[in-house]
Design brief:
Two copies of one chain form a homodimer. The first copy, chain A, contains 13 helices and seven strands. Chain A is of the alpha/beta class. Chains A and B meet through α3, α5, α6, α7 and α8 of A and α3, α5, α6, α7 and α8 of B.
């Protein structure tokens, strides 16, 4: 199939075509760039919701429950589970797929796991591309779920219009929870497993952290939830809708959209410039020699970087 | 002070000069590149140990205890705590500093927290630079501790010769623990808080995951530890020494060193090429206009990236 046909089918709401388009983009197949370009004018309608939190807080259960709320309101839904998994830990991915089966048969829900194949830069870029494909396909809401709590996972949240940060009591003391580094990016906070000891304290800790602060004028609500039993889910769902309305009415949506686009442009640059240079240097047999020089202390790392730039065409222009 | 003087003082084992050199490099001050370049030939002697794991597993306590073991053996020690913290979560950093005071007065230990100021790319690059400064200063062992369990934090571990992965029972089910994505990078595994229920199961789970696999021929040991009480620390310390000996005797050290250097060259390229381009585009007022075009769907993100490359001097060369 050529990319123009595939684009037409995606716009025609052909689920198989969407699945194939995502695979093309993930694999970086020839034509995938043309495909993305052709579909781009049809994007910009979906609400992008990011869900993040440390391992074990119950993100998956939460996303499942939110999906049910959206479906009850007849919204179609894309779910992207970003999973920095590895050959050795392949079981994690399998776990996701089994879990996702609850909505697997629902034609209004499209689920995709994105697994890392090395550096997360590529995964972040791929996430942005898959969001765009799902958006062009016409899904109303796209939930991006990142396992882990690292900085790069936080960066992926920059694609979202509304960021939901999930935590749970008993994961360590408060300081540890804050260390996740996700605190300042949240629009909505969820303390899951709220039937456990310490839930109220965790809720209060988050509230006092936000005292006197807002998220661009929005005061992030904090919800106590037991996702496994559906308790408190409706409030979180309503909170997401409220935040969307706040963004649309207050004009904050444009800033969020721009943030996402800047992230995407940066990801693309990292891939097309830096990854390209390193790949070429490997193919040409230049990289190994350079690294040996650096290891032998005859050249320093900045010098090696400069040589690669010089060889592969990067010449910073002086201001004219 | 000019960089040549600072370099001389660092090589003369002046602790204040090392602290200042690190600040220079963190802030990207003028002369910091010359400083790094001058010190580079004096690096390559330290053993770099990475310590990683999810929030709440007790990494800090573990690093403190390992530091005591190294000091008992008269080794000098650098500790770099990589902390993707933020203004809102500044308390986490403070927590670190208080904790670190145990070795704070010991002239044989040099402790530094590195905090993120945006994207982790910069933090990873800074970590590599600080390792080099400490190495040139003459510290025998450098421990790099990353909070969080994300992919970028895992990437920072590529600087290490020996990677210690810490986990603890009760953080969620096994699948959740594996999701941390750190499983395949570990040379040594530590199950901390081993006096809790489920510790033995966690140890066995990790052992069975590694069944039939090795880390470049090395079978990663799994230790049950209660770091707070010092229980099992000596075994972990011995394990790290054993792994170092394995690398040196078996010739695997060169590969680890090359891996670290490649990471550093990549980090430098991302900063000097991609960050440079985006910064210039912001200064020139070009970026905002480009992003508005993209937001208006008159240009797609790949097109925006191409325009930036074109404007700021990146032209991939064709093979000659």
């Amino acid at each position: 199939m050529i990319w123009a046909d595939l684009a037409k089918r995606v716009l025609g709401k052909d689920r198989r075509a969407l699945a194939r388009a995502i695979s093309w983009v993930e694999d970086g197949r020839e034509g995938s760039l043309d495909l993305l370009r052709a579909l781009y004018p049809h994007t910009g309608k979906a609400h992008i919701v990011g869900v993040t939190g440390s391992p074990g807080v119950g993100k998956s259960t939460m996303v499942d429950a939110l999906a049910a709320s959206y479906r009850a309101a007849s919204c179609t839904l894309g779910i992207i589970a970003v999973d920095p998994t590895s050959p050795l830990t392949g079981g994690a991915l399998l776990g996701d797929r089994i879990r996702m089966n609850r909505h697997g048969a629902d034609p209004g829900v499209f689920i995709r796991s994105l697994a890392s194949r090395g550096r997360l830069g590529g995964l972040s870029r791929a996430t942005g591309d898959v969001i765009r494909l799902m958006d062009a396909f016409g899904l109303d809401v796209i939930i991006v779920e990142t396992v882990g709590s690292g900085q790069a996972e936080v960066d992926i949240m920059r694609y979202a219009h509304t960021v939901v940060v999930i935590t749970a009591p008993g994961l360590g003391d408060e300081v540890q929870v804050l260390k996740a580094g996700t605190m300042e990016i949240g629009d909505i906070f969820v303390v899951n497993k709220a039937d456990r000891d310490g839930a109220e304290k965790t809720v209060n800790d988050i509230r006092s952290l936000w005292k006197g602060h807002t998220q661009d004028g929005w005061v992030p609500p904090v919800y106590a939830v037991v996702a496994r039993e559906g308790q408190g889910i409706q409030e979180v769902y309503q909170g997401i809708l409220d935040h969307r309305r706040y963004l649309v009415d207050g004009g904050g949506l444009a800033a969020r959209v721009t943030r996402g686009l800047e992230t995407q442009v940066r990801d693309i640059l990292e891939e097309t410039v830096v990854d390209y240079m390193l790949l070429k240097a490997k193919e040409d047999g230049l990289l190994q020699g350079l690294l040996e020089e650096v290891a032998g202390r005859r050249l320093d790392p900045h010098g090696a970087a400069a040589r690669l730039c010089d060889r592969y065409g990067w010449r910073p222009k002086e201001p004219e």
